[in-house]
Structures are given as structure tokens and as C-alpha cells.
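Hi R.,

Quick one: here's the Polyprenyl synthetase family protein sequence you asked about.
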Amino acid sequence: MVEDVLDRFFERAKARAAKLGPSYLSLWQTLEDSTAGGKRVRPRILLTAYLNLGGTDTAAAAGVGAAFELLHTALIVHDDVIDLDFTRRGQENVSGVYRDLASSAGAETGAARHRGLSAGVIAGDLALTGAFRLLDRSPVSPETRLRLAEILDDAVFASAGGELIDVDFSFHPGAPPIDEILHMERLKTAVYSFEAPLQAGAVLAGAPDEVVSTLGLYGRDIGIAYQVVDDLLGVFGSETATGKSTFSDLREGKRTVLISYASDKPEWAELSDLIGSPSLTARGAARARELLVSSGARDHARELVREYADRARQRLDCPAVTPGLRAALSAVVDDAVNRGR
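And here's the predicted structure, written out as C-alpha cells:
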């Protein structure tokens, strides 16, 4: 049903855009393409909470789930702009599509990049406002709609703060402490991907505040575990399985728990010369992985995943959490920590 909601949203938007010109219509089509094909993690966990707490109006839940999916699209489109990335998962993103169009039309490299990034900003803005539009159109009571809007707004607020912290990290020498990295990852991604959708599902189902709060805490812990797994997969994962390059994080010198842990180990003297170099070779990347293993960084990251996954499971011991919901969310923990294996 989430797919149906998104299809209707984009069909209406494209019909409106067509009246303003072909370029605008093309942007909406590109935005729709970038939204298609995802795992729909956020709608799925929202529906998991909603249905296991007694919710029965799947149309309302699908609408709110689609709002979170559009929010996800907005944030990754803007994240790519901030990172000056023109591809995602091996395909041109919104900015990449419009950069290439400008290049094909004869634009110089700098002008083509500017057009691409500009299109990315606009597309991300449209997806963000679209998320709130879908929420506003959901068939729920005014009181519930207000609570859901507050949850969505809090998620955007947190993610923006986390994104800024991540940007700030790149301008400081060395690696931030692990607790600061986890704080950034929680704000940037875990809140809107786990905490907020779970709480929204509970609010939609009319669950008590105790359950809403418990699911938020569970979402915080599993969201952090999920992000640390992402850090591991970004270096040690299979590109075939994840669709992500195992070079990009190392070439970028991305500040992750792996890098933070290794930064005060003897291996850092060699490792710091390898990471953060756009010319990093396959051989250099392999050596960087060896150093991350020998420094204990990989094992420490894995231990963090286990620690936060265990915390998430313990949150579910709350008497207010139904057995069905406990079982369903325990499975979410297993899926999150076993990705890429």
C-alpha cells in the first residue's frame, strides 16, 4: 500500500509540474526514480509497530509510512549535495542526472556540476515538503495528526543537527571520539529511520505514552547498531551484496567508529597516510583493512553492534510491550545486525 500512496503522490505532482514546463516535469520524474526500489525500512517498521499494537487502518498507516519514505529521499538527496556526490549505489543520483544533461548540452564542467547540485537542492526540498503534505493528508484525527507532525518535525530537526556535526567533523584534524561519532549517527540517521517511525506507528495505533517512549528508546539503540553495521559494511562488506563501494569511505577518510578507534593505536601512523586519499588503490585499501583489523578496530565495532543490539532487546522487556510486538521487533534486531553476512 505504501507503493500505491507514493505512486499517487508522484502522479499528482507530475500533473501539476507539467503545467509549469517540461524541465520541472523532468525533475519530478527524476525524483520519483530516485525514490523507487528502496528497501522501505521506515514504512516497514512503522507498520510493524502499528499492526502489533492493534492498528487496523492500513490506509492511514501506509500514508504515514510513505511520508517517512519521502523524508528519507529528501535527506539522502541533500546529503549527496553536501558531499558533492553525483552517484548513489553505482547510479547517477538527481544531481548526477542533471549534471550529465548540462554536460550533454555543452556546459563547462563547473557549470554542469552547479546545475546538477542545484537540481539536487530543489528536488530534496520538494521531497521534504512532500513528506509533510502526505502526513497532512492522512485520514486521522486532528489530535493524532498534530502528534505525528511533531514526531516528523523532531526527526528533521535531529537529522539536520547530525548532518552539521558530520560536516564539522571533516574540517577538524584527527578523528573525533567514538561517543561523538555515535551521537552524530544517532541524530543524522537513527532518529528518522528508527525512533520516529516506531513512535509514529505507536501513536497511530493509540498506544499509551509508555509504549511510545519505550519504542523510541528501542529505536535509538537499534538505529545506532544499524549505523555501526553500515560503517563495517562500508569497509569490509561485499559490494555485490550491499551495492556500496568498499573504497568510498576509505578514500573519503570518513570519520567512523573504525577510524576513531584506530586513531590512537600504533597502526595509525601507516593508516592515516592511506585513508582520505582520492587516489587510494585496491592494494592500498586492502592494506588499510588489514590495519583496521590488527588495530582491533573491527572487533571493537562488532562489539558495539552487539552491545546496542542487546540494549534494544532489553528495551522490549517492558510489560507494556505486547508479546507479538516483542517478537517482531526482536526479528528487526536480528535483521539489522546480520546484514551483509
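The domain at 139-341 is CATH 1.10.600.10 (Farnesyl Diphosphate Synthase).

Cheers,
M.
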